[in-house]
Amino acid sequence: MLATKVGRLLRAGAPPQSETFPDAPPLNPVFDFSYDGVMRSVEESVARLGIERIDILHIHDPDDHFAEALSEAYPALDRLRAEGTITAVGAGMNQAEMLARFAREANFDCFLLAGRYTLLDQVGLKELLPLCAERGIAIIAGGVFNSGILADPTPGTHYNYKAAPDELVQRAGRIKAVCERHGVSQKAAAIQFPLGHPAVQTVLTGCRSVDELNENVEAFQAPIPPAAWDELKADGLLVADAPVP
Question: Which pTM was predicted?
Answer without folding.
Answer: 0.91
